[in-house]
Prior knowledge:
The protein has helices at about 30-40, 45-50, 90-105, 125-140, 155-165; strands at about 5-10, 20-25, 60-65, 70-75, 110-115, 150-155. α3 packs across α4 and α4 (about 125-140) packs across α5 (about 155-165). It has a single domain, classed as Leucine Aminopeptidase, subunit E, domain 1 (3-Layer(aba) Sandwich), CATH 3.40.220. It is globular, with a radius of gyration of 14 Å. By secondary structure, it is an alpha/beta fold. The structure holds adenosine-5'-diphosphate (ADP). Adenosine-5'-diphosphate binds near residues 12, 32, 36, 119 and 155. Adenosine-5'-diphosphate binds near residues 10 and 32.
Amino acid sequence: MIELRAIQADITTLEVDAIVNAANSSLLGGGGVDGAIHRAAGPELLQACRLLGGCKTGDAKLTRGYKLPASFVIHAVGPVWNGGTMGEPELLASCYRRSLELATAERLTGIAFPGISTGVFGYPVAGAAELAVATVRSFTASTESTLSQVIFCCFSADDLAVYRRLLD
Length: 168
Ligand code: ADP
């Protein structure tokens, strides 16, 4: 049984096997959660990311967590919101799926997601949260996985309320 849980926290503080980064396609760092993760992980994370050659929107790549309490960082590249008709929902769902696939391939037991695309990339939180929860539920129902815990790590109390409603 996989537990889905929403919490309000700074994702860089979580002691889970992997935290997911809302990265951009260069994987060379940015603002928001990306900046926070790079600051907390230290410069070795950027060195590791440089070797990955970027990442397509909707895909994800894995590195170690370096100075983070998390062992791994899964760098997922969410879509920029353009009104919703440019394939944004499919690309966002793909980020969640690819991250879960990478975690499963590494035989991880716990993973924490931020609200991918819901900051600077402008994806509306309600729709993004609904898609995130549905995609994780469908993955866990259809795939044999080592994962036992999936955490939706919300930065704000408002976001947490959205996730709590979906998970109740
Ligand atoms: P994107 O460019 O994919 O929209 P952002 O980093 O701008 O990425 O925002 C994604 C989400 O991460 C937003 O909900 C934002 O509030 C949240 N966020 C920012 N910093 C942190 C953090 N340290 N821990 C968890 N979530 C964070």
